[in-house]
Amino acid sequence: MALKRLGVTLCLLLIPFTVHSQQSDPHAVSLLERSLASLSKGVPVSDVTLTGTARRIAGSDDETGTATLKELVTGQARMDLGFPSGNRSETRANSPQGPVGNWIGPDGTPHPIAEHNLLADGSWFFPALMLYRLQTSQIVLASSDNEAHDGNVVNGFTAYQQFTGSRLPAHAVELLQHASQIKIYLDPSTLLPSAVSFNGHPDNNARRDIPVEIRYSDYRAVAGVQVPFHIQKYVNNGLILDLQFETAVLNSGLAASALSLQ
Question: What are the chain's domains?
Fold first, then answer.
């Protein structure tokens, strides 16, 4: 999905190589379908807007403020956070060349998100749309049942993008697949996602992994769709963002222009 935007990352990987198509594990496909059914029960979702409070932890900084998160079924998403130290936002959009994104800190200056950090689905705050995109994209699924996570035994599966027909060398394809990989942990009784994990990377080093984990709880039904009203984001096993939502609005007709890059 983002091959066209990887010229900088892969400028040294010029040896042609044809990659063969890989097949998903049928059990992982079944888990994805069953989890999506538990989340949405067939209710179509085109967009979502979540509002509430956010707690930000960064070293000695620990502050609480407001949160507004928006997402379209296409994967375009925007997160706006307001804190005493200043406003912060992160946006992911689509372009003819593939996904693009930036983040803005209290100084108001946009900073581009590195291309290799756009390969994994970054719209992590609404599982129903994330799983829908996995189901409808060129994704390979592998199951990982009965795995221990956060002290509990959970079901789950791993997903990564295919790069077939790209004529990239094998080690480049392996790097791309690794960068796109996400792991979904499911509650064994409800099959609702309890967490997802993926790797972030420094802007100048796609090979260095920075573990990221998102944890979901406090699921509530909104217009027939299960929405996690409490989300926590961990980086390198440390909590950096704690979101508690107060409202969730689905299918409001949110326009793509509301999620464009600044």
Answer: 3-253 (2.50.20.10)
